Amino acid sequence: MRPEPGQVLHFSEDPTIREFVPHLAATARQPGEYVWAVDHGRSPDYWFPRQCPRAMAWTVRSSSQADRDRIIGPGCGTRVHAVEYGWLERMRTVELYAYRFDATPFKPFGEDGDGRGVAMVATEPVVPLGPPERVGDLFALHEEAGIALRVLPNLWPFWDAVTVSSLGWSGIRLRNALPR
């Protein structure tokens, strides 16, 4: 489930949104009201229930072979996502939807370790290109994309290793993870 060229996606568990209006997110660490979306490369970051804590790592140009082997692991491709066991059932049963937008009103926001935007934002109301699409089996999406999905008792040891590595990384909804 990724956008076509010239599109961005917004993932939601609510299939009834007709117009997206810029707002200040409750978890925002930056000022400004935005409509948030993602491009092709960052779409896999959102193949999870909305509140699911996840830690993700991927190779970038400057990644060392040692970090690739230690964190992603042999035979696991170039990207790994980690979740806690307590979220497996929700991942199996969530009804997740993707809204497609014309990318024109969206601009890159932030920068990852490879110099790409971590998100796309619009500062004006936007209307989806059509009805939301059911995302489907989140495990199958990971498998088809060649992304290793790691299930851990607790995310923090993985997160601590990832954030000091030479890999690209991102954590979403970590406040919902089990305590250290």
Alpha plus pi helix count: 4
Helical amount among residues, as a percent range?
A: 10-25%
Structural class: alpha+beta
The termini sit apart by: 32 Å
Number of individual domains: 1
Mean pLDDT: 93
Q: How large is the share of residues in beta strands? A: 25-35%
Detail the poorly predicted runs.
Answer: none
The total strand number stands at 10
Largest sheet: 4 strands, mixed
In spatial order, strands of the major sheet run 9-4-3-10
Q: What form results from the Cα inertia axes?
A: globular
Order of helices and strands: EEEHEHEEEEHEHE
Tell me the quaternary state: single chain
Radius of gyration, CA atoms, in whole angstroms:
16 Å
InterPro entries: DUF6886 (IPR049253)
Pfam family, one: DUF6886
Give structural notes.
The protein is of the alpha+beta class and 180 residues long. The protein contains four helices and ten strands. The chain has helices at 65-72, 88-93, 138-145, 156-162, and strands at residues 7-12, 35-37, 54-58, 79-84, 97-102, 107-109, 119-122, 133-134, 148-152, 168-172. The strands form three sheets. It has a four-stranded mixed β-sheet with strand order 9-4-3-10, with helices on both faces. The model has no long low-confidence stretch (mean pLDDT 93). InterPro entries: DUF6886 (IPR049253). It holds the Pfam family DUF6886.
